[in-house]
Specification:
Helix content: 25-40%
Shape: globular
Family: Belongs to the tetrahydrofolate dehydrogenase/cyclohydrolase family.
Pfam family, one: THF_DHG_CYH
CATH superfamily of one domain: NAD(P)-binding Rossmann-like Domain
Strand order of the largest sheet: 1-2-12-9-8-6-7
Order of helices and strands: EEHEHEHEHHHEHEHEEEEHEH
CATH architecture of one domain: 3-Layer(aba) Sandwich
Pathway: One-carbon metabolism; tetrahydrofolate interconversion
Number of strands: 12
Mean pLDDT: 93
Catalytic activity: (6R)-5,10-methylene-5,6,7,8-tetrahydrofolate + NADP(+) = (6R)-5,10-methenyltetrahydrofolate + NADPH; (6R)-5,10-methenyltetrahydrofolate + H2O = (6R)-10-formyltetrahydrofolate + H(+)
Largest sheet: 7 strands, mixed
Distance between the termini: 6 Å
Subunit structure: Homodimer.
Strand content: 15-25%
Number of helices: 10
């Protein structure tokens, strides 16, 4: 994808900063244009329903941002807030209603759910065609076998940034640090589909720094503040930092990634900052998935907004 504002800007050090904010803004503009076209030519408005159970502050902010950006793209936004003590049947009943609602093309149940609710049960109750998070076992299976699937938003955003930065990824050695179902595993599947040589590393991997140093592309998704230092990174490697960690520095709360950005910038060829790297891509890709789901459900050609 060619962006109006270049996603690359020189950092104070040697590495190029991959500006996910600029890329995401351009992607949202393309989505809004396609939404307007769907409305004008077919009388269809993509609709995204977000369900929040409980009052987790971070989740509440995230849900509010999703609603704002959904409406800014010209889509219909449906927000459902349920109390923290909501039982499973009440939540599943709401999911079933959204599955049947023809105005809703994407359904997202905000994670994490309260401990008494089974996340897998809830995710798999969503109509796979409306599973814009890509967490339903049906979509997981399609992705794992290289078929057309709804792809989890964060890994999809990472892939778009990598392809914009590097072009073809074929043959590159890639290391994904983290094996979660939300990021690590789907990220590995996407990279395999791009003909990369993929290693999935994790907390029990032996000599993790040595594994990382072999990577042309290093994706950090482990959830440990600044765990990956400069000596873990191959000179000139492209580093995608998925981590968002809150730490206290000089009496203030700050966001940092899983990579020591200041140190890594002296070694890497290109790197995503935190914040401003992968984060903005997640909601942009959620909107892209909702648009795609709307087109598929209505039997319309899928827009080529991410090519």
């Amino acid at each position: 994808m060619n962006v109006t504002a270049s996603p690359l800007a020189e950092t104070p050090a040697n590495a190029q900063k991959i500006d996910g904010g600029a890329f995401a803004a351009n992607l949202r503009q393309r989505i809004a244009a396609e939404v307007a076209r769907l409305q004008a030519e077919h009388g269809v408005t993509p609709g995204l329903a977000v369900v929040l159970v409980g009052d987790d502050p971070a989740s509440a902010v995230y849900v509010r941002n999703k609603g704002t950006q959904t409406e800014a793209a010209g889509m219909a936004s449906f927000e459902h807030r349920l109390p923290a003590d909501t039982d499973a049947e009440t939540l599943l009943s709401l999911v079933r209603q959204l599955n049947e609602d023809q105005a809703v093309h994407g359904i997202l149940v905000q994670l994490p759910l309260p401990d008494h609710l089974d996340s897998d049960l809830v995710m798999n109750a969503i109509d796979p065609a409306k599973d814009v998070d890509g967490f339903h076992i049906f979509n997981v299976g399609l992705l794992g076998t290289g078929q057309k699937a709804m792809v989890p938003c964060t890994p999809l955003g990472c892939l778009l940034l990598l392809k914009d930065q590097l072009g073809s990824l074929a043959g590159l050695n890639t290391v994904v640090v983290g094996r979660s179902n939300i990021v690590g595993k789907p990220m590995a599947q996407l990279l395999l589909k791009e003909s990369c040589t993929v290693t999935v590393a994790h907390s029990r991997s032996r000599d993790l720094p040595a594994i990382c140093r072999n990577a042309d592309i290093l994706v950090a998704a482990v959830g440990r503040p600044e765990m990956i230092g400069a000596d873990w990174i191959k000179s000139g490697a492209t580093v995608i930092d998925v981590g968002i960690n809150r730490v206290e520095r000089e009496g203030k709360q700050r966001l940092v990634g899983d990579v020591d950005y200041a140190a890594a910038s002296h070694v890497a060829g290109a790197i995503t900052p935190v914040p401003g790297g992968v984060g903005p891509m997640t909601i942009a890709c959620l909107l892209a998935n909702t648009l795609t789901a709307c087109c598929r459900i209505n039997g319309l050609p899928e827009p080529e907004i991410m090519d």
